[in-house]
Design a protein that fits this description.
- By secondary structure, the chain is mainly alpha-helical.
- It has 3 domains: about 35 residues; about 45 residues; about 35 residues.
- Helix content is about 75%, strand content about 0%.
- The chain contains 4 helices and no strands.
- The longest helix is centred in the N-terminal third of the chain and has 32 residues.
- The two termini are about 15 Å apart.
Length: about 120
């Protein structure tokens, strides 16, 4: 256990040296590359304004998303009513989507248990 701690400490030291050496250059390069997204003047008031704009823009998009949700649900109901017309490709896509949802559920359960498969800490 002590050797792992020493290895972890040495790796952390290497990483901090790397960040200290190249961090400012990367920071400047990132800011220069994304200059068009920077708001001037960079003040707290400007940040508050942008946060409020984002919040209310997202809030105003809810009716459109709500409408799209109901259209998707109506399409799914239509597919269920007309199962006999269902193509194998559509059934395969639905099966893959269900499998993906199940996989994300399982991953969430594993993460919730602290990254243990059985639920017991080893």
């Amino acid at each position: 256990m002590a050797t792992k701690l020493v290895q972890l400490q040495s790796k952390a030291t290497e990483a901090s040296k790397l960040v200290a050496k190249h961090g400012t250059g990367y920071y400047r390069q990132l800011l220069e590359k994304n200059r068009q997204y920077i708001q001037e003047p960079p003040t707290v008031e400007k940040c508050d304004l942008l946060a409020k704009q984002l919040f209310y823009t997202r809030l105003s998009s809810i009716p459109g998303r709500f409408e799209a949700f109901w259209k998707e649900l109506d399409y799914a109901k239509h597919l269920l009513k007309n199962r006999r017309e269902l193509k194998i490709e559509d059934a395969g896509i639905a099966a893959l989507f269900g499998l993906e949802c199940f996989a994300w559920f399982c991953a969430g359960e594993i993460i919730g248990r602290g990254f243990t498969i059985t639920g017991y800490y080893v």
